[in-house]
Amino acid sequence: MGSSRLRSNQSSISEGMEEGNQAMKLYSHPMSSCSRRVRLALNLKGLKYDCINITSTNHPELLKVNPMGYVPALIDGTIVISDSYAILLYLEEKYPLQVSFSSSIQPLQNMTLVNYIGEIVGPEEKLPWAQLHIRKGFVALEKLLMKYAGKYATGDEIYLADLYIAPQLDNAINRYKLDMSQAEFPLLIKLNETYRKLPSFQQV
User: Fold this and answer.
1) pLDDT value of residue 56
2) Which helix (H) or strand (E) holds 143?
3) Residue 61 carries which DSSP code?
4) Among 52, 54, 118, 165, which residue's Cβ finds the most Cβ atoms within 10 Å?
C-alpha cells in the first residue's frame, strides 16, 4: 500500500504534539488482542513507545485521540492512527518488517460483541458464543497453515500473521478457556508454545 493510501487512514491533531524524536504513544488495553498485535510489532521492530493502558471506552484522554473510544490508537509525532491494521501498515512502511497474513476470527469474540450477546440472550451464553466462533476459525486456520507453516505461522521468520495469531491463541486459551486438544490443533498448539518462548512476545 502506498503512502498516499496509508495517509487516508490517518488524521493529525495539533494540540500537545510536536515533530521530533519523542517516543510514540500507544493507547492500549492488556486484554485487547488488537492492541497486543500492535505491541508485538513495536517490540519486534525495537521501537520505543509509551504504553497508556485504557480501561474504559469513555476515558477522556482516549476520546481526544479516537472519538470512538476504541483501542489501539497510536500517536507518532503529528500522526494519529486508531485501527490496528492501519497501524501495522503504517509501521511496516516506516519501519519495515515482512508482511504476509491477517486473521478475521477476532471480531466475532470482541468483548463489545460478547457483552452484547450477554445482554440480549443471557450472560451464560457469552462464553459458548466466543468458543464457538474461535473454534470454527481455528479449525479453518489449522488446515490453512499446514500448507505454509515452518517454525512460525507462514515460514521460518516472523511475519504479520504471527502478530495476529499469537494474541488470538492467548485469548482463546486463557480468557475463553477453549479446550484445544493436541489431536485437533497440533499446529496451533506448537505455534503457541513457540510464541511463549520469544522475549518480544513475552513482553506483551
Assistant:
1) 83
2) helix 126-145
3) H
4) 165
Q: Amino acid identity, residue 167?
A: P
- Expressed in percent and rounded to 5, the helix, strand and coil fractions of the chain are 50, 10, 40
C-alpha cell at 98: 515482512
Q: Which is nearest to 74 in space by CA: 168, 162, 11? A: 11
CA distance 39 to 194: 18
Please state, as a whole number, how many other Cβ atoms lie within 10 Å of the Cβ of residue 150: 10
Helix (H) or strand (E) holding 128, with range, is helix 126-145
Strand, coil or helix: 10: coil
Buried b (16+ CB within 10 A) or exposed e, 33-57: bbbbbbbbbbbbeeeebebbebeee
| 49: nearest Cα among 7, 5, 91, 100 | 91
Q: How many beta carbons lie within 10 A of that of residue 159, not counting itself?
A: 18
- Span 113-154, pLDDT tens digits: 888 888 998 999 989 989 998 999 999 899 989 888 999 998
Stated pTM of the model? 0.66
For the record, the C-alpha cell of 137 comes out as 476459525
